[in-house]
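User: Okay, second chain of the day. Same drill as before: sequence in, structure tokens out.
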Amino acid sequence: MKVLFAATACFALTGCPPTYPKCDSDANCTEKGEVCVQGQCQECAVDANCKPGFVCDANKCVPKPECTDKNPCKAGAKCKQGKCAVEAGAKDGTSSTNEDSPSGEECKAGKCAAKGGAAGSCSVEPVRFDFNESKLGSEGQAALAALADCIKKNGWKLRVEGHADERGTEEYNLQLSNRRAASVKRYLTDLGVPDAALETVGYGENKPAVSGATEAAWAANRRVELVKR
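Assistant: Same drill. Structure tokens below.
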């Protein structure tokens, strides 16, 4: 009876606030960190509602595209689905024969990898990634090709640690760092490294290599580190 009376009084006096995800104003969505858009709580209405490096698309915060029609790519690359892709003549990292691989590389297990001399290096350096990208670049592929020989020769066991820069939500960055670690592991196993020799973990934005909110710092933090176990 008391509940019914309270509900009746609520409507009679001031009107109860709408039930989520419905809303009358941004105040109804604050608890979820959202904004009111045409009567519905949404993640964003404009780019300013999103964190740096993200834009509002269909009321969702998504990574800012690397390129647009108004912001084209540098010479030698073409904008495809918001990303700069190398045009004809540059390879995507896959190959079927040595002729398909760029100069200085050869085909190994269907991948373009550094030739001969580079394979003798056993330096374990971080693998870098482009913004919002988990696909390996040519430099990362060449370094991992050399490292694969070292792992197999020395019987190393490595922990593959994925990282992301601070832009974006913590949950998104954790997923991205896991994808980066998985990409490195997959490339190494394709080159013959035993699956059991590699374990992966993603740290998201929580273990930056460099502090700061600059392009240089973000680039340094978009990485995968390989740590001997």
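DSSP finds four helices and twelve strands in the chain.

User: Thanks, on to the next one.
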